[in-house]
Specification:
The chain is of the alpha+beta class. It has one domain. It contains one helix and three strands, in the order βββα.
């Protein structure tokens, strides 16, 4: 298993928080709290990387 580290940007969206990684276009998550958004983004990154691998695409460098 390869370890990847990606920058995560978390923004206050008023009634919730949104998160994304500039290194993984299209990978985003939301949460009711900052902590929820961070946890949800972790899961989104895992699924995004799995999808890239299944499609035979390279995982971008951070």
């Amino acid at each position: 298993m390869t370890l990847h580290r990606f920058l995560i940007i978390i923004e206050d969206a008023g009634s919730n928080f949104s998160a994304y990684s500039p290194d993984l276009p299209g990978c985003a998550a939301t949460g009711g709290t900052r902590a929820d958004a961070e946890v949800n983004m972790y899961g989104a990154i895992q699924m995004h990387i799995e999808g890239l691998r299944e499609d035979g695409l390279p995982v971008p460098a951070a």
